[in-house]
Amino acid sequence: MTTAPGASTCGTLSRVASIVPAAGTLPWRHRDGRLEVALVHRPKYDDWSWAKGKLDPGEHPCVAAARETFEETGLVVRLGTPLPLSEYPILDATGAPATKVVHYWASVVIGGSGKLLHEIDEVAWVDVRTANVRLDYARDREQLLALVRAERAGELDTWPLALVRHAKATPRSKWKRDDRLRPLDAVGRAQSTGVAAVLGAYGVTRVVSSSSVRCSATVEPYAVSKGLKLRTRDGLSEEGFAVSPDDAASELARLLARGEPAALCSHGPVLPGLLETLGHRAGPDHTEVGTRLHEAARSAMRKGEVLVCHVHGTGEHARIVGVERIDT
C-alpha cells in the first residue's frame, strides 16, 4: 500500500513465508532537559516493550500505529519520523511459522486520558538509559537508538506536511459541466475515507485544498471529522495554476512558514512543482529524501495518494528529514 514504510502483505503460496503485519510507536518527550520515552508492560508476557499491535484488514501501518498506541495506552499520538522496522519469527494463529513485521514511528502525545485500555497494565515514561536496560527484547533497542540519533542530530522534533492528490473522480469524458465541479466517483469516495484515516494518524490541524470539487471532497471528510475549517484556494486548481503558476508555490511557502501539521490537496499538473521545491529542502544529511521527492515529481503521484514530508524547522530554515508515500 505504500513505498515507505512498506506495505505489509504477502502471498499465500507458502505458510512458512507468511507475514503478520503490525505497527507501533515510540512516544517521546523532553522532561527536565532529558529525553524520555514511553514503555508498556504486558502482564500476559511480563515484558516491557513498545506500544504496538496487528493491522486490521486493509489498514495502513501508519493508521494502525496510532490506533494501537491509543488502544494500549489511552494516549492520542501524532506520528513523526519513521523508525527502523522489526522482523522476527512467530507462530501465526494456526500454529504455522510466520514472520512478524512491525513498523514503528516516533510520536508525540497530543491528547488522551492515559487510561489503560487494552492488554497493558502499566505505561512508564523513562529516560533512554533506563529504557535501554528495561526493554526485554534486543530488537526493540534498534528503534530506541534511531530515536536517540535523531534527537542528537536535532531532527527529532518534526511536523508533518502532507501533499494529497485528489481521489478518483468522474471521468472528464462523462462530465459535460464545468470541470471544476466534477465530483468523486464511488472509488474516490472510498479513498477519501482512507485519506482521512492517514491524515488523522499524523495529527493534521490545517487543511488547504484546490477549490475544485474533486479536491475539496477528498479532504473534506477529514476536516469535518476534526471540526477543522477547510480552506480552498483557486491557485491550487488546474485552472488557477495555468493562469498563475506562482500562486501554488506561495501557498506552500505559507504552510512552511506556519510550521503547523498541514495537508495540501491539489492536482496532477500542480503537485510536481511543489514536490521539486520540497526536494530542494532536504536536509544536508538526507540526500535520499531529496531524491525521493524529485522522483515523486517526475513519476506523478497516484490519485488518492498521500505524500507525507517530515519537516524540521519553519520558513527559510525548514528542512525535510523524512518522506513517506501512502496509497489509500
Helix amount, in percent?
25-40%
The major pleated sheet works out as: 7 strands, mixed
Strands side by side in the biggest sheet: 1-14-13-9-12-10-11
Radius of gyration, in angstroms, nearest whole number: 20 Å
- Strand runs, count: 14
CATH C-level class of the largest domain is Alpha Beta
By CATH's scheme, which homologous superfamily of the largest domain applies?
A: Phosphoglycerate mutase-like
> Could you give the order of the helices and strands?
EEEEEHEEEHHEHEHEHHEHHEE
> In what range is the share of β-strand residues?
25-35%
* CATH fold type of the largest domain: Rossmann fold
Q: Give the terminus-to-terminus CA distance.
A: 7 Å
Derived from helix and strand composition plus strand pairing, the structural class reads: alpha/beta
Shape: globular
What average pLDDT do the residues reach?
94
Keywords: Hydrolase
Organism: Humibacillus xanthopallidus
InterPro entries: His_Pase_superF_clade-1, His_PPase_superfam, NUDIX_hydrolase-like_dom_sf, NUDIX_hydrolase_CS, NUDIX_hydrolase_dom, Nudix_hydrolase_domain
Pfam families: His_Phos_1, NUDIX
Describe it:
The structure is a single chain. Helices cover 32% and strands 33% of the residues. With 328 residues, it is an alpha/beta fold. It folds into two domains: 2-152, Nucleoside Triphosphate Pyrophosphohydrolase, CATH 3.90.79.10; 159-326, Phosphoglycerate mutase-like (Rossmann fold, 3-Layer(aba) Sandwich), CATH 3.40.50. The strands form two sheets. A seven-stranded mixed β-sheet has the order 1-14-13-9-12-10-11, sandwiched between helices. It is globular and about 65 Å long. This is 8-oxo-dGTP diphosphatase. Residues 18-148 form the Nudix hydrolase domain.
